[in-house]
Amino acid sequence: MIWRNLGERTVYENPWLRVNLADVELPDGRHLDHYVIRQRPVALATAVNEAGEVLLLWRHRFITDTWGWEIPAGVVEDGESIEDAAAREMLEETGWRPTGPLHRLLTVEPSNGLSDARHHIYWARGAEHLGHPQDDFESTRRAWLPLKAIPDLITQGHIPAANTAAALLLLHHLNP
Predict the structure, then answer these.
(1) 42-174 — its CATH code?
(2) Contacts of 155 (CB under 8 A, 6+ apart)
């Protein structure tokens, strides 16, 4: 059963996203109007240190009025590779630069019934502290948390962001 997008028109646009109205044909031939949010790619990066800890941000999200641990993330700038954007975001938001190569962990579509957003998540084995984060307004604190604590933190609601939860569960599995 395939829903066919017969065309879209933009109803709102800014530098971060576009809201389009799509003419969608359902498998039975009926049509419906469906709003679609078109977004730029997002890159995330973290590191796992020798003690088996992962670097995270503790931050508030005003939209949901929730607090939680997250992996540093941001929009990929024009002309920037996704991997470079991930490393840049990690440094800007934590003050830590990945050491060695970044490894692609996974790509998730956090809301694929509404948006075409893709979040590309990377990780490194280790990081070097270069100083206070440039974008310290992004989080209340930055910390290294034990990977072994991740499942409990997710269950307790301390990691509400789906992209971070999926990535950390996979990192936990890969780094027992």
Answers:
(1) 3.90.79.10
(2) none
